[in-house]
Amino acid sequence: MKFWTFISLRRQVLELQTMQGDNLWPLAVYVAAVLLLAVTMIGLSYVVGEKHMGRSTGEPYESGLMPTGAAWIRFDVKYYLIAMFFVIFDLESIFIFAWAVAVREAGWSGYLAIVIFIGILMAALFYLWRMGALDWGTLKQKRRIL
What is the pTM of this model? Predict the structure, then answer.
């Protein structure tokens, strides 16, 4: 009896694998179409594109103005900090929006979770503010404000 059960189970598994393989052909067509489109676009840009090497071909474009100075300038670290804070806090807004969409299904446990989440965000923002990570001014400007 066990042998026939094993054979029956093996046949069902093979039928399931065959059915899944039949459903993958749209994915293969899609991948082929994307690859064909990418190769066509790159090939056309090579064939139709301009091939001259003028004096200013390698120069950076400065909105029609002649570039002055070096292109490699140093940015202040605070610029990167603000950009990083923006990305982090912007990402949290996505989580809060997802919670707002599912607020009825989440119930009180979801409400408690989002309150804790926002509390942690506020604590992080307060910490960054107290550490001076959000201050842009120089030391002289800070003394004038205080």
Answer: 0.44
